[in-house]
Amino acid sequence: MTAGLGVLLRLALRRDRVMLPVWLYALIGTAASTAVSIRALYPDQASRDRLAAGINDNASLRALYGPVYDTHSLGALTAWRVLPFGGVMIGLLCVLLVTRHTRAEEESGRLELLGAGAVGRAAPLTAALGTALAACAAVAVVVPVLMAALGQDLAGSVAFGLAYAGVGLVFAGVSALAAQLTGTSRAANGIGGALLGAAYLLRATGDAAGDGGPAWSAWLSPLGWAERVHSYGGDAWWLLGLMLLAAAVPTAAAYALAGRRDLGGGLLPQRPGPAAAAPSLRGAYALGWRLQRGSLFGWAAAFLVSGAVLGGISRGISRLVDGNQQVEQLLRRMGGAEGVVDSYLATIMGTLGMAAAVYAVQTVLRLRGEEAEGRAEPVLATAVTRLGWAGSHLLYPLAGSAVLLLSGGLGAGLGAGAVLGDTGGWTGRLVGAGLVQLPAVWVFAAVTLALFGLAPRRTAAGWGVLGALLLIGYLGPALHAGQWLLDLTPFTHVPRLPGGVLTLRPLLWLTLVSVVLGTAGLLGLRRRDLAG
Protein backbone atom coordinates (compact mmCIF):
# COMPACT_ATOMS: atom_id res chain seq x y z
CA MET A 1 0.00 0.00 0.00
CA THR A 2 2.90 2.42 0.66
CA ALA A 3 5.43 1.18 -1.90
CA GLY A 4 7.49 4.08 -3.23
CA LEU A 5 6.75 6.26 -0.20
CA GLY A 6 10.35 7.35 0.27
CA VAL A 7 10.68 8.52 -3.32
CA LEU A 8 7.39 10.44 -3.20
CA LEU A 9 8.31 12.07 0.11
CA ARG A 10 11.66 13.23 -1.25
CA LEU A 11 9.91 14.52 -4.38
CA ALA A 12 7.39 16.48 -2.32
CA LEU A 13 10.10 18.04 -0.17
CA ARG A 14 12.10 18.93 -3.24
CA ARG A 15 9.11 20.62 -4.87
CA ASP A 16 8.55 22.62 -1.68
CA ARG A 17 12.20 23.52 -1.15
CA VAL A 18 11.45 27.23 -1.67
CA MET A 19 7.95 27.63 -0.28
CA LEU A 20 8.32 25.50 2.84
CA PRO A 21 11.42 27.18 4.33
CA VAL A 22 9.85 30.61 3.80
CA TRP A 23 6.69 29.57 5.64
CA LEU A 24 8.65 27.94 8.46
CA TYR A 25 10.89 30.97 8.80
CA ALA A 26 7.80 33.17 9.14
CA LEU A 27 6.03 30.84 11.61
CA ILE A 28 9.06 30.28 13.83
CA GLY A 29 10.41 33.81 13.45
CA THR A 30 7.05 35.24 14.49
CA ALA A 31 7.20 33.38 17.80
CA ALA A 32 10.79 34.38 18.55
CA SER A 33 10.40 38.02 17.50
CA THR A 34 7.15 38.33 19.46
CA ALA A 35 8.90 37.16 22.62
CA VAL A 36 11.68 39.70 22.11
CA SER A 37 9.16 42.48 21.41
CA ILE A 38 7.04 41.70 24.48
CA ARG A 39 10.13 41.71 26.69
CA ALA A 40 11.01 45.19 25.39
CA LEU A 41 7.47 46.59 25.45
CA TYR A 42 6.33 45.17 28.80
CA PRO A 43 9.45 44.99 30.97
CA ASP A 44 7.73 44.87 34.37
CA GLN A 45 4.71 43.24 35.99
CA ALA A 46 2.75 46.48 36.22
CA SER A 47 2.90 47.07 32.45
CA ARG A 48 1.87 43.47 31.81
CA ASP A 49 -1.08 43.77 34.16
CA ARG A 50 -2.22 46.93 32.36
CA LEU A 51 -1.99 45.07 29.06
CA ALA A 52 -4.11 42.21 30.41
CA ALA A 53 -6.70 44.60 31.80
CA GLY A 54 -6.92 46.48 28.51
CA ILE A 55 -7.44 43.25 26.56
CA ASN A 56 -9.72 41.38 28.95
CA ASP A 57 -12.05 44.35 29.49
CA ASN A 58 -12.63 44.85 25.75
CA ALA A 59 -14.71 42.23 23.91
CA SER A 60 -13.41 43.32 20.50
CA LEU A 61 -9.80 42.92 21.57
CA ARG A 62 -10.57 39.52 23.13
CA ALA A 63 -12.11 38.43 19.84
CA LEU A 64 -9.05 39.59 17.93
CA TYR A 65 -6.27 38.36 20.23
CA GLY A 66 -7.95 36.09 22.77
CA PRO A 67 -8.04 36.69 26.54
CA VAL A 68 -4.83 37.03 28.54
CA TYR A 69 -4.74 34.16 31.04
CA ASP A 70 -1.38 34.76 32.69
CA THR A 71 0.91 37.80 32.89
CA HIS A 72 3.64 36.36 35.11
CA SER A 73 5.88 35.05 32.35
CA LEU A 74 7.14 36.25 29.00
CA GLY A 75 6.31 32.84 27.53
CA ALA A 76 2.63 33.02 28.50
CA LEU A 77 2.23 36.41 26.83
CA THR A 78 4.08 35.17 23.76
CA ALA A 79 1.77 32.15 23.45
CA TRP A 80 -1.26 34.43 23.91
CA ARG A 81 -0.06 36.73 21.11
CA VAL A 82 1.10 34.06 18.65
CA LEU A 83 -1.45 31.24 18.79
CA PRO A 84 -4.60 32.94 17.40
CA PHE A 85 -2.96 34.13 14.16
CA GLY A 86 -0.04 31.73 14.08
CA GLY A 87 -2.47 28.84 14.40
CA VAL A 88 -4.40 30.11 11.38
CA MET A 89 -1.20 30.38 9.36
CA ILE A 90 0.14 26.91 10.19
CA GLY A 91 -3.32 25.49 9.51
CA LEU A 92 -3.36 27.20 6.12
CA LEU A 93 0.13 25.88 5.34
CA CYS A 94 -0.93 22.30 6.04
CA VAL A 95 -4.11 22.65 3.96
CA LEU A 96 -2.08 23.90 1.00
CA LEU A 97 0.63 21.25 1.39
CA VAL A 98 -1.71 18.27 1.56
CA THR A 99 -3.91 19.48 -1.30
CA ARG A 100 -0.86 20.26 -3.44
CA HIS A 101 0.51 16.72 -3.17
CA THR A 102 -2.80 14.82 -3.41
CA ARG A 103 -5.77 16.32 -5.22
CA ALA A 104 -3.71 18.74 -7.33
CA GLU A 105 -1.47 15.88 -8.49
CA GLU A 106 -4.51 13.84 -9.50
CA GLU A 107 -6.06 16.80 -11.25
CA SER A 108 -2.93 17.39 -13.34
CA GLY A 109 -2.61 13.72 -14.31
CA ARG A 110 0.83 13.28 -12.78
CA LEU A 111 -0.39 10.94 -10.07
CA GLU A 112 -1.80 8.57 -12.67
CA LEU A 113 1.63 8.33 -14.28
CA LEU A 114 3.26 7.67 -10.92
CA GLY A 115 0.62 5.07 -10.11
CA ALA A 116 1.56 3.16 -13.24
CA GLY A 117 4.89 2.37 -11.56
CA ALA A 118 5.74 0.63 -8.32
CA VAL A 119 3.74 3.04 -6.15
CA GLY A 120 1.20 1.91 -3.59
CA ARG A 121 -2.28 3.42 -3.55
CA ALA A 122 -1.77 4.95 -0.10
CA ALA A 123 1.76 6.25 -0.79
CA PRO A 124 0.80 9.68 -2.27
CA LEU A 125 -1.51 10.50 0.63
CA THR A 126 1.10 9.32 3.14
CA ALA A 127 3.80 11.41 1.44
CA ALA A 128 1.57 14.50 1.53
CA LEU A 129 0.77 14.00 5.21
CA GLY A 130 4.44 13.30 5.89
CA THR A 131 5.38 16.66 4.37
CA ALA A 132 2.83 18.44 6.55
CA LEU A 133 4.00 16.45 9.57
CA ALA A 134 7.61 17.47 8.89
CA ALA A 135 6.59 21.14 8.81
CA CYS A 136 4.66 20.80 12.08
CA ALA A 137 7.54 18.90 13.68
CA ALA A 138 9.95 21.69 12.78
CA VAL A 139 7.69 24.20 14.55
CA ALA A 140 7.18 21.88 17.54
CA VAL A 141 10.94 21.43 18.01
CA VAL A 142 12.48 24.80 17.09
CA VAL A 143 9.97 27.07 18.86
CA PRO A 144 10.54 25.45 22.32
CA VAL A 145 14.31 25.59 21.79
CA LEU A 146 14.16 29.31 21.04
CA MET A 147 11.82 30.02 23.95
CA ALA A 148 14.05 28.05 26.32
CA ALA A 149 17.03 30.02 25.03
CA LEU A 150 15.17 33.17 26.03
CA GLY A 151 15.01 31.87 29.58
CA GLN A 152 11.49 30.43 29.60
CA ASP A 153 10.36 27.29 31.38
CA LEU A 154 11.12 24.19 29.30
CA ALA A 155 7.84 22.36 30.00
CA GLY A 156 5.81 25.45 29.12
CA SER A 157 7.89 25.96 25.97
CA VAL A 158 7.24 22.37 24.88
CA ALA A 159 3.51 22.81 25.52
CA PHE A 160 3.55 26.04 23.48
CA GLY A 161 5.36 24.40 20.55
CA LEU A 162 3.09 21.36 20.55
CA ALA A 163 -0.08 23.48 20.73
CA TYR A 164 1.21 25.59 17.84
CA ALA A 165 1.99 22.52 15.72
CA GLY A 166 -1.14 20.65 16.82
CA VAL A 167 -3.40 23.09 14.99
CA GLY A 168 -1.49 22.32 11.80
CA LEU A 169 -1.92 18.57 12.28
CA VAL A 170 -5.69 18.94 12.70
CA PHE A 171 -6.04 20.81 9.42
CA ALA A 172 -3.66 18.45 7.63
CA GLY A 173 -6.16 15.70 8.45
CA VAL A 174 -9.08 17.88 7.36
CA SER A 175 -7.36 18.63 4.05
CA ALA A 176 -6.59 14.95 3.47
CA LEU A 177 -10.28 14.14 3.82
CA ALA A 178 -11.34 17.09 1.63
CA ALA A 179 -8.98 15.84 -1.10
CA GLN A 180 -10.90 12.55 -1.21
CA LEU A 181 -14.31 14.19 -1.31
CA THR A 182 -13.76 16.76 -4.05
CA GLY A 183 -12.74 16.53 -7.68
CA THR A 184 -10.57 19.67 -7.88
CA SER A 185 -7.78 21.19 -5.84
CA ARG A 186 -9.64 24.49 -5.73
CA ALA A 187 -12.62 22.84 -4.06
CA ALA A 188 -10.38 20.95 -1.63
CA ASN A 189 -8.59 24.16 -0.65
CA GLY A 190 -11.97 25.87 -0.40
CA ILE A 191 -13.26 23.30 2.09
CA GLY A 192 -10.06 23.46 4.13
CA GLY A 193 -10.06 27.26 4.10
CA ALA A 194 -13.74 27.46 5.02
CA LEU A 195 -13.29 25.14 8.00
CA LEU A 196 -10.23 27.10 9.07
CA GLY A 197 -12.25 30.32 8.89
CA ALA A 198 -15.07 28.70 10.85
CA ALA A 199 -12.57 27.61 13.51
CA TYR A 200 -11.32 31.19 13.81
CA LEU A 201 -14.85 32.57 14.10
CA LEU A 202 -15.80 30.02 16.76
CA ARG A 203 -12.67 30.89 18.71
CA ALA A 204 -13.29 34.64 18.37
CA THR A 205 -16.97 34.32 19.33
CA GLY A 206 -16.17 32.28 22.42
CA ASP A 207 -13.35 34.58 23.52
CA ALA A 208 -15.44 37.70 23.04
CA ALA A 209 -18.45 36.32 24.95
CA GLY A 210 -18.97 37.77 28.38
CA ASP A 211 -20.80 36.26 31.31
CA GLY A 212 -23.77 34.31 30.03
CA GLY A 213 -22.57 34.47 26.42
CA PRO A 214 -21.63 31.57 24.13
CA ALA A 215 -18.13 31.11 25.56
CA TRP A 216 -18.52 27.38 24.88
CA SER A 217 -18.11 27.97 21.13
CA ALA A 218 -14.35 28.37 21.56
CA TRP A 219 -14.24 24.73 22.72
CA LEU A 220 -15.45 23.69 19.25
CA SER A 221 -12.33 25.12 17.60
CA PRO A 222 -8.76 23.73 17.49
CA LEU A 223 -7.59 27.33 17.83
CA GLY A 224 -9.54 27.58 21.08
CA TRP A 225 -7.94 24.32 22.28
CA ALA A 226 -4.47 25.70 21.55
CA GLU A 227 -5.22 28.80 23.64
CA ARG A 228 -6.60 26.74 26.52
CA VAL A 229 -3.51 24.57 26.78
CA HIS A 230 -2.40 27.55 28.95
CA SER A 231 1.27 27.18 28.11
CA TYR A 232 3.46 28.36 31.03
CA GLY A 233 0.37 28.67 33.20
CA GLY A 234 -1.01 25.20 33.77
CA ASP A 235 -0.02 23.19 30.69
CA ALA A 236 -3.26 21.29 30.02
CA TRP A 237 -1.57 18.39 28.22
CA TRP A 238 -4.84 16.54 27.67
CA LEU A 239 -5.87 19.12 25.09
CA LEU A 240 -2.87 18.12 23.01
CA GLY A 241 -4.29 14.59 23.01
CA LEU A 242 -7.61 16.01 21.84
CA MET A 243 -5.80 17.68 18.93
CA LEU A 244 -4.17 14.38 17.98
CA LEU A 245 -7.57 12.69 18.04
CA ALA A 246 -9.09 15.46 15.92
CA ALA A 247 -6.27 14.95 13.41
CA ALA A 248 -6.47 11.15 13.46
CA VAL A 249 -10.20 10.82 12.75
CA PRO A 250 -10.31 12.65 9.37
CA THR A 251 -6.95 11.12 8.45
CA ALA A 252 -8.29 7.61 9.00
CA ALA A 253 -11.40 8.47 6.98
CA ALA A 254 -9.19 9.81 4.17
CA TYR A 255 -7.24 6.54 4.00
CA ALA A 256 -10.46 4.52 3.97
CA LEU A 257 -11.90 6.59 1.11
CA ALA A 258 -8.63 6.69 -0.87
CA GLY A 259 -8.79 2.93 -1.32
CA ARG A 260 -12.42 2.91 -2.48
CA ARG A 261 -12.76 5.71 -4.99
CA ASP A 262 -11.65 6.03 -8.61
CA LEU A 263 -8.35 7.76 -9.22
CA GLY A 264 -8.99 11.34 -10.32
CA GLY A 265 -12.56 11.39 -9.07
CA GLY A 266 -14.08 12.75 -5.89
CA LEU A 267 -16.96 11.37 -3.85
CA LEU A 268 -18.99 14.58 -3.95
CA PRO A 269 -20.88 14.97 -7.26
CA GLN A 270 -19.75 17.81 -9.52
CA ARG A 271 -22.29 20.05 -11.19
CA PRO A 272 -21.91 19.71 -14.97
CA GLY A 273 -21.39 22.90 -16.90
CA PRO A 274 -23.65 24.11 -19.72
CA ALA A 275 -23.36 22.49 -23.12
CA ALA A 276 -22.43 25.81 -24.76
CA ALA A 277 -20.44 28.71 -23.40
CA ALA A 278 -22.28 31.91 -22.60
CA PRO A 279 -21.61 34.96 -24.81
CA SER A 280 -19.87 36.55 -21.84
CA LEU A 281 -17.07 33.97 -22.16
CA ARG A 282 -15.99 35.10 -25.60
CA GLY A 283 -12.45 36.45 -25.47
CA ALA A 284 -9.40 36.14 -23.26
CA TYR A 285 -10.51 38.85 -20.83
CA ALA A 286 -13.88 37.17 -20.31
CA LEU A 287 -12.10 33.90 -19.57
CA GLY A 288 -9.75 35.68 -17.17
CA TRP A 289 -12.74 37.15 -15.34
CA ARG A 290 -14.36 33.72 -15.11
CA LEU A 291 -11.18 32.23 -13.61
CA GLN A 292 -10.36 35.07 -11.23
CA ARG A 293 -13.72 36.37 -10.04
CA GLY A 294 -14.28 33.84 -7.26
CA SER A 295 -10.92 34.61 -5.68
CA LEU A 296 -11.47 38.35 -6.04
CA PHE A 297 -14.91 38.25 -4.41
CA GLY A 298 -13.66 36.11 -1.54
CA TRP A 299 -10.67 38.34 -0.85
CA ALA A 300 -12.79 41.51 -1.09
CA ALA A 301 -15.30 40.17 1.44
CA ALA A 302 -12.47 39.20 3.79
CA PHE A 303 -10.93 42.69 3.50
CA LEU A 304 -14.27 44.35 4.19
CA VAL A 305 -14.91 42.28 7.31
CA SER A 306 -11.32 42.53 8.56
CA GLY A 307 -11.29 46.28 8.06
CA ALA A 308 -14.56 46.66 9.95
CA VAL A 309 -13.33 44.55 12.88
CA LEU A 310 -9.94 46.26 13.09
CA GLY A 311 -11.45 49.71 12.72
CA GLY A 312 -14.11 48.92 15.31
CA ILE A 313 -11.57 48.40 18.09
CA SER A 314 -9.81 51.74 17.52
CA ARG A 315 -11.45 53.28 20.61
CA GLY A 316 -9.90 50.61 22.81
CA ILE A 317 -6.38 51.34 21.54
CA SER A 318 -5.96 54.43 23.70
CA ARG A 319 -6.81 52.42 26.80
CA LEU A 320 -4.55 49.57 25.75
CA VAL A 321 -1.44 51.76 25.54
CA ASP A 322 -2.34 54.03 28.45
CA GLY A 323 0.76 54.51 30.57
CA ASN A 324 3.02 52.38 28.33
CA GLN A 325 5.34 54.67 26.42
CA GLN A 326 7.10 51.77 24.68
CA VAL A 327 3.88 50.59 23.01
CA GLU A 328 2.91 54.11 22.03
CA GLN A 329 6.35 54.68 20.51
CA LEU A 330 6.10 51.41 18.60
CA LEU A 331 2.68 52.30 17.18
CA ARG A 332 3.93 55.70 16.15
CA ARG A 333 7.01 54.18 14.55
CA MET A 334 4.88 51.72 12.58
CA GLY A 335 2.15 54.21 11.80
CA GLY A 336 4.13 57.41 11.55
CA ALA A 337 1.20 59.60 12.68
CA GLU A 338 0.79 62.08 15.50
CA GLY A 339 -2.04 60.52 17.46
CA VAL A 340 -2.15 57.01 18.84
CA VAL A 341 -5.45 56.22 17.09
CA ASP A 342 -4.10 57.58 13.80
CA SER A 343 -0.96 55.49 14.30
CA TYR A 344 -3.00 52.39 14.94
CA LEU A 345 -5.22 52.94 11.90
CA ALA A 346 -2.20 53.65 9.72
CA THR A 347 -0.66 50.40 10.96
CA ILE A 348 -3.72 48.30 10.12
CA MET A 349 -3.96 49.87 6.67
CA GLY A 350 -0.32 48.93 6.12
CA THR A 351 -1.16 45.40 7.25
CA LEU A 352 -4.04 45.22 4.78
CA GLY A 353 -1.63 46.43 2.11
CA MET A 354 0.66 43.50 2.91
CA ALA A 355 -2.29 41.13 2.62
CA ALA A 356 -3.14 42.67 -0.78
CA ALA A 357 0.42 41.92 -1.87
CA VAL A 358 -0.24 38.23 -1.13
CA TYR A 359 -3.28 38.37 -3.41
CA ALA A 360 -1.30 40.15 -6.13
CA VAL A 361 1.46 37.52 -6.14
CA GLN A 362 -1.13 34.73 -6.12
CA THR A 363 -2.94 36.12 -9.16
CA VAL A 364 0.29 36.59 -11.14
CA LEU A 365 1.25 33.01 -10.34
CA ARG A 366 -2.00 31.93 -11.98
CA LEU A 367 -0.27 32.68 -15.29
CA ARG A 368 2.39 30.10 -14.55
CA GLY A 369 -0.21 27.58 -13.47
CA GLU A 370 -2.20 28.02 -16.68
CA GLU A 371 0.97 27.63 -18.74
CA ALA A 372 2.48 24.68 -16.87
CA GLU A 373 -0.77 22.70 -16.89
CA GLY A 374 -1.30 23.16 -20.63
CA ARG A 375 -4.38 25.38 -20.49
CA ALA A 376 -2.63 28.39 -22.02
CA GLU A 377 -1.84 26.65 -25.33
CA PRO A 378 -5.47 26.27 -26.54
CA VAL A 379 -6.07 29.96 -25.82
CA LEU A 380 -2.91 31.04 -27.63
CA ALA A 381 -3.75 28.81 -30.59
CA THR A 382 -6.54 31.28 -31.38
CA ALA A 383 -6.13 34.92 -32.34
CA VAL A 384 -5.14 35.81 -28.77
CA THR A 385 -1.56 37.11 -28.46
CA ARG A 386 0.75 36.29 -25.59
CA LEU A 387 0.50 39.83 -24.26
CA GLY A 388 -3.28 39.74 -24.56
CA TRP A 389 -3.43 36.47 -22.65
CA ALA A 390 -1.10 37.81 -19.96
CA GLY A 391 -3.08 41.04 -19.74
CA SER A 392 -6.31 39.12 -19.12
CA HIS A 393 -4.78 37.85 -15.87
CA LEU A 394 -2.63 40.86 -14.94
CA LEU A 395 -5.72 43.04 -14.75
CA TYR A 396 -6.42 41.49 -11.33
CA PRO A 397 -3.15 42.23 -9.51
CA LEU A 398 -3.42 45.75 -10.92
CA ALA A 399 -7.10 46.64 -10.53
CA GLY A 400 -8.17 43.77 -8.27
CA SER A 401 -5.67 44.87 -5.62
CA ALA A 402 -7.26 48.32 -5.72
CA VAL A 403 -10.68 46.73 -5.13
CA LEU A 404 -9.33 44.90 -2.08
CA LEU A 405 -7.75 48.01 -0.59
CA LEU A 406 -10.91 49.98 -1.30
CA SER A 407 -12.94 47.30 0.50
CA GLY A 408 -10.54 47.27 3.44
CA GLY A 409 -10.54 51.05 3.72
CA LEU A 410 -14.33 51.16 3.49
CA GLY A 411 -14.71 48.53 6.21
CA ALA A 412 -12.17 50.22 8.48
CA GLY A 413 -13.82 53.60 7.94
CA LEU A 414 -17.25 52.27 8.83
CA GLY A 415 -15.87 50.43 11.87
CA ALA A 416 -13.88 53.40 13.14
CA GLY A 417 -16.75 55.79 12.46
CA ALA A 418 -19.13 53.60 14.44
CA VAL A 419 -17.04 53.94 17.62
CA LEU A 420 -15.37 57.33 17.10
CA GLY A 421 -18.13 59.25 15.32
CA ASP A 422 -17.88 61.11 11.98
CA THR A 423 -18.37 57.99 9.86
CA GLY A 424 -18.18 59.89 6.58
CA GLY A 425 -14.91 61.59 7.50
CA TRP A 426 -13.21 58.41 8.72
CA THR A 427 -14.41 56.44 5.69
CA GLY A 428 -12.91 58.94 3.26
CA ARG A 429 -9.62 59.12 5.15
CA LEU A 430 -9.21 55.36 5.45
CA VAL A 431 -10.21 54.63 1.85
CA GLY A 432 -7.41 57.00 0.85
CA ALA A 433 -5.05 55.36 3.34
CA GLY A 434 -5.82 52.00 1.74
CA LEU A 435 -5.40 53.08 -1.87
CA VAL A 436 -2.07 54.73 -1.13
CA GLN A 437 -0.66 51.23 -0.50
CA LEU A 438 -1.31 50.26 -4.13
CA PRO A 439 2.11 51.18 -5.66
CA ALA A 440 3.88 49.03 -3.07
CA VAL A 441 1.55 46.12 -3.85
CA TRP A 442 2.32 46.50 -7.57
CA VAL A 443 6.05 46.09 -6.90
CA PHE A 444 5.52 42.57 -5.56
CA ALA A 445 3.31 41.68 -8.53
CA ALA A 446 5.93 43.08 -10.91
CA VAL A 447 8.74 41.07 -9.29
CA THR A 448 6.71 37.88 -9.75
CA LEU A 449 5.88 38.83 -13.35
CA ALA A 450 9.57 39.44 -14.08
CA LEU A 451 10.39 35.98 -12.76
CA PHE A 452 7.58 34.47 -14.85
CA GLY A 453 8.81 36.09 -18.05
CA LEU A 454 12.58 35.75 -17.58
CA ALA A 455 12.97 32.64 -15.41
CA PRO A 456 9.64 30.76 -15.51
CA ARG A 457 10.92 27.77 -13.55
CA ARG A 458 11.73 30.16 -10.70
CA THR A 459 8.36 31.92 -10.69
CA ALA A 460 7.49 30.43 -7.29
CA ALA A 461 10.43 32.39 -5.86
CA GLY A 462 8.00 35.31 -5.88
CA TRP A 463 6.61 33.82 -2.66
CA GLY A 464 10.08 33.87 -1.16
CA VAL A 465 10.62 37.54 -2.04
CA LEU A 466 7.19 38.39 -0.68
CA GLY A 467 7.70 36.48 2.56
CA ALA A 468 11.14 37.93 3.26
CA LEU A 469 10.17 41.55 2.60
CA LEU A 470 6.85 41.33 4.43
CA LEU A 471 8.60 39.81 7.43
CA ILE A 472 10.98 42.77 7.46
CA GLY A 473 8.09 45.21 7.20
CA TYR A 474 5.98 43.47 9.86
CA LEU A 475 8.62 42.67 12.46
CA GLY A 476 11.35 45.20 11.69
CA PRO A 477 9.83 48.14 13.60
CA ALA A 478 9.15 46.00 16.67
CA LEU A 479 12.74 44.72 16.66
CA HIS A 480 14.22 48.21 16.07
CA ALA A 481 15.82 47.08 12.81
CA GLY A 482 18.15 49.46 11.01
CA GLN A 483 16.63 51.87 8.53
CA TRP A 484 18.65 50.35 5.67
CA LEU A 485 16.89 47.03 6.31
CA LEU A 486 13.44 48.60 6.56
CA ASP A 487 14.06 50.44 3.28
CA LEU A 488 14.23 47.11 1.45
CA THR A 489 10.49 46.64 1.65
CA PRO A 490 8.30 48.84 -0.58
CA PHE A 491 5.84 49.51 2.23
CA THR A 492 8.46 51.53 4.12
CA HIS A 493 8.23 54.19 1.41
CA VAL A 494 4.44 54.51 1.43
CA PRO A 495 3.08 57.64 3.18
CA ARG A 496 1.57 56.70 6.55
CA LEU A 497 -2.05 57.69 6.45
CA PRO A 498 -4.19 58.76 8.22
CA GLY A 499 -2.29 61.40 10.15
CA GLY A 500 0.82 61.56 7.99
CA VAL A 501 1.71 63.73 5.01
CA LEU A 502 0.80 62.52 1.53
CA THR A 503 3.92 62.77 -0.65
CA LEU A 504 3.72 61.69 -4.27
CA ARG A 505 7.43 61.24 -4.99
CA PRO A 506 7.89 57.80 -3.36
CA LEU A 507 4.64 56.59 -4.93
CA LEU A 508 5.88 57.62 -8.37
CA TRP A 509 9.20 55.84 -7.80
CA LEU A 510 7.45 52.66 -6.70
CA THR A 511 5.21 52.83 -9.76
CA LEU A 512 8.23 53.30 -12.01
CA VAL A 513 9.96 50.27 -10.50
CA SER A 514 6.80 48.24 -11.12
CA VAL A 515 6.63 49.38 -14.74
CA VAL A 516 10.28 48.50 -15.40
CA LEU A 517 10.05 45.04 -13.81
CA GLY A 518 6.68 44.29 -15.42
CA THR A 519 7.91 45.35 -18.86
CA ALA A 520 10.97 43.11 -18.50
CA GLY A 521 8.71 40.19 -17.62
CA LEU A 522 6.38 40.76 -20.58
CA LEU A 523 9.30 41.09 -23.02
CA GLY A 524 10.71 37.84 -21.67
CA LEU A 525 7.34 36.13 -22.14
CA ARG A 526 7.21 37.22 -25.79
CA ARG A 527 10.64 35.76 -26.57
CA ARG A 528 10.87 32.54 -24.59
CA ASP A 529 9.42 29.13 -25.36
CA LEU A 530 6.01 28.39 -23.92
CA ALA A 531 6.09 26.06 -20.89
CA GLY A 532 9.81 26.64 -20.69
TrEMBL record:
<feature type="transmembrane region" description="Helical">
    <location>
        <begin position="122"/>
        <end position="146"/>
    </location>
</feature>
<feature type="transmembrane region" description="Helical">
    <location>
        <begin position="82"/>
        <end position="102"/>
    </location>
</feature>
<feature type="transmembrane region" description="Helical">
    <location>
        <begin position="506"/>
        <end position="525"/>
    </location>
</feature>
<keyword id="KW-1133">Transmembrane helix</keyword>
<protein>
    <submittedName>
        <fullName>ABC transporter permease</fullName>
    </submittedName>
</protein>
<keyword id="KW-0472">Membrane</keyword>
<feature type="transmembrane region" description="Helical">
    <location>
        <begin position="158"/>
        <end position="179"/>
    </location>
</feature>
<feature type="transmembrane region" description="Helical">
    <location>
        <begin position="430"/>
        <end position="454"/>
    </location>
</feature>
<feature type="transmembrane region" description="Helical">
    <location>
        <begin position="344"/>
        <end position="365"/>
    </location>
</feature>
<feature type="transmembrane region" description="Helical">
    <location>
        <begin position="394"/>
        <end position="418"/>
    </location>
</feature>
<feature type="transmembrane region" description="Helical">
    <location>
        <begin position="296"/>
        <end position="317"/>
    </location>
</feature>
<feature type="transmembrane region" description="Helical">
    <location>
        <begin position="24"/>
        <end position="42"/>
    </location>
</feature>
<keyword id="KW-0812">Transmembrane</keyword>
<feature type="transmembrane region" description="Helical">
    <location>
        <begin position="236"/>
        <end position="258"/>
    </location>
</feature>
<feature type="transmembrane region" description="Helical">
    <location>
        <begin position="461"/>
        <end position="486"/>
    </location>
</feature>
